[in-house]
Amino acid sequence: MPPRKTRDQIDRIFYPQSLAVVGTNKVRGTVPGDIFVNILKDDFQGVIYPVAPGERFISGIKAYKYVLDIPDEVDMAVLVFPSSVCHMAMEQCGQKGIKSMIIISAGFKEVGGAGVEREKQIKAIADKYGISFIGPNCLGVINTDPKCRMNASFARQMPDEGNIAFISQSGALCTAVLDYARAKHIGFSKFVSFGNKADVNEIDLLYYLKDDPKTKVILIYLEEISDAHGLMQVAKEIISETGKPVLAIKSGRTSEGASAAASHTGSLAGSDSACDAAFAQAGIIRCDTIEDMFNFAIAFAYQPLPAGNRVAIITNAGGPGVLTTDKAIKEGLQLAKFSEETTKAFKMSLPKTANIKNPVDVIGDARADRYNIALTSSLKDPNVDGVMVILTPQSMTDIKTIAEEVANISSQYTKPIFASFMGEADVAVGIDILQRRSIPHYQVPEDMCKSFARVYRFKKQLERNAIGILGVQQFEDVDNYTAQKILDEAKAAGRNYLPEEEAEKVLKAYNLPMLPGGLANSAEEAVKIADSIGYPVVMKVISDDIVHKFDVGGVRLNIISSEDAGNAYRHILENIKRTHPEAHLKGIFVQKMVKGGEEVILGLKRDPAFGPVIMFGLGGIFVEVFKDISFRIAPVTGDSISDMIKEIKSYPLLSGARHRNERDIESIELCIQRISQLSVECPQIQELDINPLIVLDKGEGCYVADSKIML
Fold it and tell me: What is each CA distance from 211 to 205, 418, 455, 698, in whole angstroms?
């Protein structure tokens, strides 16, 4: 990957003291014309130079034919010429000594063909002159900092100042987000559409925002990920060093969506499960929708993080209070148990018909005074970590006054307050007050609960990071030479599949727990091997032409005697001759059979964007049925492996639920660590399955019962 941009290089893009709009015109309603007008009308705190061949002035400002005609130094250029001539304008910018640019123009990599070459051309010119640029094919860059106030974009309006940064690969999405945010009075610190990211990319921007004092929350929209490990690393640094949350939407969840993303941005998408795993490991909060993203964002941006998950619910209607309670519990929150002092305050000040237990129902005719009592008493209670306020509009409800009361009380406490004024038209005045006063507001209480829970989980993540995590285990007892030799010989022979006896040798080289066995080429050899390792045994056909052995009668289980072993060998051969007469057989593998234990699966798949992805889940015949699996990106830390195992729904089967024997989970963790190391050190492996890994009782270990490796 190219070297990362320095802070100074990005700073020149966000804080230029002078800029030239190269290729602008006088025509309103066009990209070149609107960008110049936006910079001018939104009070840019610097000098603007329009570069417009054929024009003497634009909006009363002297225009120049070429950048080189500008007599003064210029910090940044905003390029809006057609893509076919961008390289010429960029060359002049380089000669002028301009070191930062925003290239709005489309017609580059995203259109393919000649566009790809045009993008390479402008990148080469940028490298030649040391220019850092955003784009091409982007909406532009907005900085709301009063020191700069730059709207170098063709968005319809400048957003309010705020502490949320938004960076996006899609310019069209940016315009919709700006409109959505403006309606909700959500402000931004920085707002960037980075388009094709031919130079400055999302990782450069994230490193910059990490140390940006104006930014508290970072939002990102991606259509493809070109440096997955770089993205994971910067997110980890942002979260661990600053405590800023990183929220992301990654499009292309389905195969159809991934295809659409590729045609839109000229880029490819990685697998969605790998993306989920990578984001989870890095601490990135993945959002399904724009609404979810901003629901979470305002919770982080407006209110302090809750110390715990004990919430007080205050409502003027019983039904919504019950719905909120159900959702809160489902999201992992707890209803706070009020102290005697709080209960006493409620009894003294609330009507006798009010419900003073949690959720607190102040009754439908409640005015601001009752909300005040309920809120202040709850916030003072040491058993309460945060408050959720619900209002339904009754004929006597003073919505405006109650909203102001909620906002005033919030400013006096360090515990978070979330609100849901239910409805739309009648409660609009109250919602407007809450949003302007930085109270997170949600149209329905369910979203309020979901957001509170998301913020609480992030707080727990920060606490865990502060304690420290277990690192990546590096084993010294592995025989990488042997593993590499087997893999390289198979590739040299043009084979993409390792038969089981070769796969076992690779796994054994990495000291995974293998069962004794051997390859037989006659019934007599099969009996001899079975007698030597002891019964019961399992027998499996070995052939490059047969991957799914069970499906063709190529496996026999529970062989308990010499006679059974000989018969099993012959039966397997008969089945293969009938179903796959053309298959080349290497023999029948005879292996010790372990009875009892739990069957799990370990897997590895090399993703084009994220690299080796490790899989764990319920194994045996159920893996395809239930798909009870979890993923991580290698190399995997000890903490992440522990979480990975606990994530699957069938984890209680391993941990000893309902009087079952507790299984040897520690041995599973060691196997995953070894597979992780194998995946990093042996890039020839495209896919690996250990299914099943038989896990015995705690302290008794586990064993690889079946394995396959694809190259």
Answer: 10, 28, 21, 47
User: CA–CA distance from 80 to each of 20, 36, 153 (Å)?
Assistant: 11, 10, 10
Q: What pLDDT score does 639 carry?
A: 84
Token pair 């302290």 is found at 699
Measured CA to CA, the distance from residue 693 to residue 677 in angstroms comes to 18
Report angle CA 238, 76, 244 to the nearest 5 degrees. Answer: 10
Enumerate residues 6+ apart whose C-beta is below 8 A from 341: 381
d(CA 597, CA 619): 12
Confidence at 486, pLDDT banded by 50, 70, 90: very high
The pLDDT tens digits of the residues spanning 551-592 come to 788 899 999 999 999 999 999 999 888 888 888 888 999 999
**From the CB of residue 364, how many other CB atoms can be counted at a distance below 10 Å?**
16
| CA neighbor of 450 nearest in space, from 356, 323, 352 | 323
582/544 Cα distance (integer angstroms): 11
From the CB of residue 702, how many other CB atoms can be counted at a distance below 10 Å? 26
CA separation, residue 491 to residues 16, 21, 686 (Å): 54, 55, 12
Angle of helix 445-467 relative to helix 318-330, nearest 10 degrees?
30
- In angstroms and rounded to an integer, the radius of gyration of the C-alpha atoms of the chain is 32
Answer yes or no: are the C-beta atoms of 125 and 91 closer than 8 Å. Answer: yes
- Locus of tokens 């964002």: 297
Q: What's the pLDDT tens digit per position in 319-341?
A: 999 999 999 999 999 999 999 99
How far apart, in whole angstroms, are the C-alpha atoms of residue 119 and residue 83? Answer: 9
Q: What b/e readout covers 322-338, taking b as 16+ CB neighbours within 10 angstroms?
A: ebbbebbeebebebbeb
**pLDDT digits 0-9 by tens, 107-139:** 999 999 999 999 999 999 999 999 999 999 999
3-state secondary structure 523-548: HHHHHHHHHHHCCCEEEEEECCCCCC
Show the domains of the chain with their CATH numbers: 7-299 (3.40.50.261), 306-467 (3.40.50.261), 516-593 (3.30.1490.20), 598-710 (3.30.470.20)
Strand runs (DSSP E) across 279-372, as ranges? 285-286, 310-315, 334-335, 360-361
628, 618 contact by CB (below 8 A): yes
Cβ atoms < 10 Å from Cβ of 489: 11
- Is the backbone peptide bond immediately before 536 cis, with ω within 30 degrees of 0? yes
Classify 683 as helix, strand or coil: coil
